[in-house]
Amino acid sequence: MIRSFGLIDVMYLVAAARWTVALTVTAFTGAALLGLLIAIVRILPFAPLRWLAAGYTHIVQGTPLLVWLFLIFFGLPLIGISVNPWLAAAVAFSVYGSAFLGEIWRGALISIARTQWEAGASLGLSLWEQLRHIIVPQSIRVAIPPTVGFLVQLIKNTSLAATIGLVELTREGQLTAAGTYKPFAVYITVACIYFLMCFPLTQWSRSLERKLDVAR
């Protein structure tokens, strides 16, 4: 039975947006932890580890996110590992995001003048102490704006989780459009909800760029 698109449907879409936010937070947390490890490994003086981290980054960045979703959700069960849509999406987004955050943060770390590293070494600080006390505090101001920008992209990319059946905002929009036969109204509403989630972060990112004045 076809029903009209109304306030109740909008409320369902808003409720589904909570899962989009939850998936974004989970994926960003996982991506940040793994990305930080990759960024640090890529600046270590041990070449094999750098090559391994660089290879991981190139492979992940060169593979579509949708492939990672399908590989984890449909591929793992073939070797006896069953995963639900939520776990598959969280792992896929974490893996995908880690390569980009790792590259962003590596760029921020190596943007610090070499003399800063040398000054730390001259004080007798270890590599980890140099990172903790000298390099990381300075690199944060460089890394924050692009990190927030990537977070915005991650929110929008979570829509791909609909392809494996996870009922987040986009999937709820598909179900609502199928039930109401009002795809234009439904997807306009979905787009507005995404906009309301992303626009404040975009503005915050631009504000941070001006406030931190990274270029100077």
Question: What does the model show?
Answer:
Helices cover 78% and strands 0% of the residues. The mean pLDDT is 89. By secondary structure, it is mainly α. Helix 1 packs parallel to helix 8 (183-212) and helix 6 packs antiparallel against helix 8. The protein is flat. The termini are far apart.
Number of continuous helical runs: 8
Largest sheet: none
Q: Could you estimate the helical fraction of the residues in percent? A: over 70%
Mean pLDDT: 89
| Strand runs, count | 0
Residue runs with pLDDT of under 50 for 5 or more positions: none
Q: What class would the helix/strand composition place it in?
A: mainly alpha
The sequence of SSEs as H and E is: HHHHHHHH
Radius of gyration: 21 Å
Percentage of residues in DSSP E strands: under 5%
Shape: flat
In whole angstroms, how far apart are the ends? 62 Å
Oligomer: single chain
